[in-house]
Structure formats: C-alpha cells, structure tokens
Amino acid sequence: MACVLCSSTALAEKILWYCALFLALILVLSCCEWSKSEFTAKVVQLQRDHLNKPCDEIYMVGEGETLQTIVEKCGDPYIVEENPHIHDPDDVIPGLLIKITPLIKLR
User: Fold this and answer.
1) Domains and CATH numbers, the chain
2) Contact at 8 Å (CB) between 36 and 45?
3) Is the pTM of this model over 0.85?
C-alpha cells in the first residue's frame, strides 16, 4: 500500500510540474503577442524593402547589359574591383555572375 501511495505522489508531482511549465509558457507567449495589424504592417514593410532592392548580392548579367547599366541599376561603382574574374570591362557577357555591393540606397 505504501508503494501505491508513493507512485501516486510521484505522479501528482509530475502533473504539477507539467502544469507549471504550461502556465509559464502561456505567460511568455502572452507577453510576445502581436496583433494582426502589427503583423500585417511588418509583412508590408518587408515586401517594400524587397521591392526597393534592385539587385541581389550575386547578380547574373542579362542580354544587352553593360557594366555601366548594371552600375546604374544596382548602385555599385566598384564592380570591376570586386570581381577579379572581369579582366576587360567591355567583355561582359550574358550569364556572367558578378558580386554586387551597393553603396547608395536606390528607390
């Protein structure tokens, strides 16, 4: 009989710990709750930031592009210095991958 009482006490303590953990989790989550409007505003801001970013860090040269048009589009005047595989600035072919580090924020 003492063993049954011992196991029920252990079970009660285990349930108590789970309840305490659950309540702590609820408390933490309630402090971090975002309203729907805050979430929507954050999503819209992230979409605007993505649309304002004209070039990725790694850029693939398209048909008819020159280094000058890429500089104007991406805002990186030091493309040749950052890409040692470009030996001749006039020899830029479609499909060439170049690293872009924009210095100015384009809108």
Assistant:
1) 54-107 (3.10.350.10)
2) no
3) no
